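Q: Can I see a sequence and its folded structure?
A: Here is a first one.
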Amino acid sequence: MNHLSFLNLHRGFSIRSGFIRSCVSRTLLLACTVSAPMYAMSLDDGLAAKKDKDFPRAEAAFSAVIVSEPKNAQAWAERATVRAWQDKYDAAIADWRQALVLSPTNADFHTGLARVLNWKGDRSAALSEIDRALLTKPRDPELWQLKGDIAHADHNRALALTAYREADRLDHGDRASRLGDDPWDPTRWRVDLNGVRDHYSNARGTESGFGLALGYHHPSEGDNDYEWFATGGLTQLNHFGAHDLTIGTEAGIRLYEPLLIRVDGTYTPDADFEPDWRVGGGIDLRIIGPVTALMDVRHSEYRDQQQQVLLAAPGLRIEPFNALTIEGRYLASTDHLSAQNGQQSTTVHSQAWQGRLTLNLGRLHPYIGYAQGEEPDPPAPTTYGRSVWGGLVFDLDRNLSIRADVAYEDRADWTRTSLGGGVILRF
């Protein structure tokens, strides 16, 4: 190779080496340029800036996350929060609404939107958002307090009192006293008055029943104070052309938070169709998360001890969130009739199941239930049937509620339609 060829080769190698170094440098520079803001875009960075009260930097970080993850509801909510703290109310409201599009049942998002609407002065819209949050968390005293604060700022004293009283009832506070109201007493009495009218498709025609009960509930007020309740009442039933007046009582105590123990009993003097007496009891035991195991056992004596019925009713109650309760039970019974009038004694076993769904929507508490199977109903024989029932309890305020009930039962020889109602008074 001559000298000129060597120089050309060396020059070409140098050019190519420079080009390679240039490409590598540009690639590294581009990588650094891209990766640098990626770190600043993280949600954790925004939360750290929010904690340090560097709200502009936190807003920028949450904005970067939203650009890369537009369906990240938390990022929208976090940016809404820091924007509101910078008095950017309209932008914050828009962010909260977008967060709710992504997570429409999130009570915290409704609450955050309510706060900003209140700060902006749109208190009517703020109260609507609080009511939506209460659909999911009706037993949250802080939500009721916020509702009271907004209503008070809106010069709606009646609504503020109602909200503060509910908050006080839930955590035994004294918020209502701020508006000149007496603090809510955590020890509460309750009176239940109800009536029902049954129409049968057979010769029984129309029958009725009435009930009155007085109850006392004592919530736990410390580690050495147990929650307990006691109820007593009278029930008059007009069935089969006869009248029975029954005295009943029930009591329960919560020995520790997951376990409630109950006992109950009734006595009917000179009974025609009701049991002469009945005793029973049960337990509610929360076993995991929202799931509670139920067990009830009752023994009834009819016709001067000529007939005995033993009932066992295990079940489950599930409360996936505060606004919904689902309960199901299996009923197994043994009906024993003693020998009489030359006839041999008989024993009949029967079984049934029933389910019930209850909603707690603020002041509104609708429910619906269904049952199917055999159920002993002395003095009539055991028959197979289906029944469906439903109703509604509406809280007018903390002291007064009204209820309405309807039921339909279909058995082999007859059908029954029931309409009922009642009043609940608390003091």
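Q: Show me another, different protein.
A: A second, unrelated one:
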Amino acid sequence: MLKDFINIVFLLFQALFFLIGLYFFLTSIFGLAEKIYGKDSKSYLPVKRFAIFVPAHNEETVIGDIVDNLRHLNYPEDSYDLHVIADNCTDNTAAVAKAAGANVLERFDSKNRGKGHALQWAFEKVLYKENCEYDAAVIFDADNLISKDFLRVMNNKLCDGHKVIQGYIDSKNPDDSWITMSYSIAFWSANRLFQCARSFLGMGCEIGGTGFCMDVKVLKQIGWHATCLAEDLEFTMKLILSNIKVGWAHEAVVYDEKPLNLIQSWKQRRRWMQGFADVCSRYFFKLFIKGIKDRNIALIDCAIYTLQPYVILMGAVMLFIPFINIYIMDYDMYVISARVAPAFFRLYGVTQFLLIPLCLYYDGKLSYKLLIFYPVYMFYCLTWIPIAAEGIIMRKNKEWNHTIHTRKVTIHELE
């Protein structure tokens, strides 16, 4: 009886992983199709007025660079304002930002800490007014640098009818270490194989935490209230439940600073997995059930996306299935569990491993140095397994861990 139960559990587990893996692989192919068959946005006059928000906690080292960068975008100066949110700062972030030319909003709240709370507070001060003069809000992190045409691209997307748009998250420091290179490969491939694919299929993209734009009317209608450790994911789920899809702007580039070492990276990614597990527990069934009722694949896609930490652990289990003792299972079940399923797992892994360089070549990111680092990227991927486990265990811990940013680079060095 116990053996039969174990057999059934293993088969169901592997069938679920097979379906999810196949789904992600098939959808990722459309990211390459978008490069060939995707439609270019129309060009419009710069008619939209933007409020740019940069939440910053003890970022005196890098805040001056992004303020200077944002003050010199290729967009009419009187059509956008920059608001730096100096959130619970104990250094000179506010003074440096003000000296560089930004409007500074200082916030002190030791109880409600974190980026989500800071943005909620700033939106209430600047946007939630009857006579609000802004058409859209744009969010950046303090360590970012922004392509000069970012607002022009967002203006075009808004004029095309999009209400929320995510920009292309690039890397500010890909060559600093094996960790920064691995991060960069992950983000570059996600831009093409995940975001572009969903844009091409019309399913809606995911907000990536920085470099995104929101119509102010939509923000007021939905309300922000995204204050967990993955505020971007939570807000994406709220949008899709209100039938608002996130658009994609491949030409609106934001350069993000990646952590330099494994310890910093571990803490940041654990926070992401905590947020994913938290959002999954609150939104997965809402999304999935509504998606089934409405026959809306975009809702189901978002529901599956929230499963990320659990899918990572499922992949980890798949690695160990071939080592299960044959005496635990019937022979026929053993053949399926220990031979057929791992064969698919290896095929899926190898195919994805080969697909990533192709997509990087498509976007002009492939280099000899990257190919040398690429095998190390596999180890980086394996580190997600314990990180995902930690994130699930610690999902109820809402304490925000700040990632220190120190990499001083100007936009002129990147572009």
